[in-house]
Design brief:
The chain has 10 helices and 17 strands. The chain is an alpha+beta fold and about 375 residues long. It binds aspartic acid.
Amino acid sequence: MITRRDFLAVSGAGAGVGVGAATGVVPIASLGMAASVLGARPRPASQPASEGDAHRGPCVIASGNGLAAVTRAMELLDQGYDPADAVVQGVRINEDDPEDNSVGYGGLPNEEGIVELDASVMHGPTHKSGAVASLRHIKNPAQVALLVLRRTNHCLLVGEGALRFARQMGFQEENLLTEASRLAWLKWKANASREDFWLDDAERDPPAGKVWVSDGPGKLSAIDPDGVKRLTGTVHCSAVTRAGDLAGCTTTSGLSWKIPGRVGDSPIIGAGNYCDNEVGSAGCTGRGESCITNLSAYTMVMLMEMGKTPGEAAFEAARRMVDRSKESRLKGADGRPRFNVSFYALRKDGAYGAASLYEGSFAVRDRDGARVLPTVPLYSKGG
Ligand code: ASP
């Protein structure tokens, strides 16, 4: 079982890495720009070529945990299903899997031990989206999101309203907390030096301002919350048909031990999932707050529209996220991010690519079959 401390370790936290070509990072001076313009952040080198950029034709990509999802989605595309059905049925395999503790049934719970799920679907041909957030007791939020898309005039239902809608659509409520996830939560609860998502004053960069709470009508007072660190996991899946129609879906139990009601990037269109039928489809997994504040999925599609290949668009979205990670608590002593995010991009013609802040993987089902490939990382954990 990975702890949140382990996650920080694997995501490169505190890795004392030098600057040089072997690390995938070039010295600022060699970029011909003043360090003062760029700030002190280490800059990644330009990316190596991404082999998926040369692919053409029907294709499904997913996060690294989505090998079964891409395989299933392509089977459905081959049978003529709409790409939105294909991606939702693909990720359903992860949602139903109790061993996958990042999604659906078996997902890791919030800080009160309750599993809250987020998901979105975007459909290229209609440019419609549907999403649910903080949905409890329903193990297939992506299917509920698809029904929001198809059966309502809305984009996003949350919490109690999302649950009622799911019930009305015939979904069964169940306990989503598996024994393994409950034990993981108990272990976190029992951890004396517990890390959570509340920030104390030392963790807020100036100008931090005050945190104001209501003391009753017309009265406010400041509070001092405490702590941060996280464990992430999600499945994103994007598909393109032979005719060039696109859809994307992202589904997750979000960050483990999150503050109840916290919504990540997965159900936010443009953040963890976005698709434009004229251009392509993209999604992200990892620290959702960074994907929201950088609108990373939209950014990738926009960059593809401006002529970048999917591999270039994913890499550039990753670079932008690093450049815009301003808070010092998010960076190690070496200036590198203390979290990981992976970026997945699929173009209308079937070209694809993926990048990440640190090493990661993605799944693809293209003309050569289904397999898991490495993403192109900005930084190496190892050096
Ligand atoms: N992006 C998800 C969220 O922030 C978590 C993850 O992908 O690991 O909710």
